[in-house]
Amino acid sequence: MSAERVATTIDYREITHPDIRRLWAFKDVPGVNRGAAGEILGVVKDNPGAVISFATGQTMEGVYEALVGLSQEQEISFNRILALQGDDYYPADPERDEFSFARYLRKRLFEPLEIPIEHRFEINALVSDPEAEALRYEALLAQQPVDLTILGIGPDSHIYFNESGIPFNQRMFVANFSQATLHRDRVERRQETPDRAITQGIGNILDSRQILLVAFGERKGGWLRRALYGQIDTVCPASALRLVGDKVTMVIDEAAAAVLQQGRE
Q: A single GO CC term, please (predicted)?
């Protein structure tokens, strides 16, 4: 990915970090959305058959809306990409449960971008044996090396559902949620979500050829600050990205950047 893919009409600046190849701060959230969408679109322009692992959550809503708009404006087709899921709650029914990540991706991305069903590789979060499903998806990832992994960042600096203490070599697995994640989902968001998920491990994430992390706001800036300037260890899952920083792009807003740079200028 390169800076040339970011629309020149969007105000952004580059923040230097010793480990991360590109750390871009945009003026506001709409700028973050278009900047991140431009990065994804650039990967597909370069490789129409790219394998992309998609994140979900509130952070990505605006990114994917911008991506759909840009793809239509520039007439870029997504019908040859292979679309993967980073994680999903377990159990979750995409036909019924609003919290289903498969449902989220279908509604916000797969259907608007007209990605063929046979090119969508969803996690089956209705199986009776989630560990077996994790193994099935791990085998799929082994067959389809990922060109781009898209990430947000969550409580305790988690990426996908890799929470504090997960080894950096962890492969696809069934995660049991921390109290911080349960509080976010059930108290802050008032969602009756499960307490487990099937998720790609940190090892899967680090294997990706390119990684794009999107974050905005002071709260997420704090989580990211810990990942970027604290120790690299399993207490802070996102700190693992610094081990492969030469293939990482981070797109944030000025509110998050201000937290990152407190006391560092």
A: cytoplasm
- Give a yes or no: residue 2 inside a domain: no
Structure-derived torsion over alpha carbons of residues 256, 88, 1, 245, reported in degrees to the nearest 10: 70
- State pLDDT tens for residues 98-120: 999 999 999 999 999 999 999 99
DSSP string, 107-124: IIIITTTT--GGGEE---
Helix then strand then coil, in percent of the chain rounded to 5, is 45, 20, 40
Contact (Cβ atoms closer than 8 angstroms) between residue 164 and residue 156: yes
Q: Has residue 24 been placed in a domain?
A: yes
Note whether 22 and 250 are within 8 A (CB). yes
DSSP state of 94: T
Number of domains making up the chain: 1
Contacts of 133 (CB under 8 A, 6+ apart): 123, 124, 125, 127, 198
Q: Would you say the pTM of this structure is higher than 0.85?
A: yes
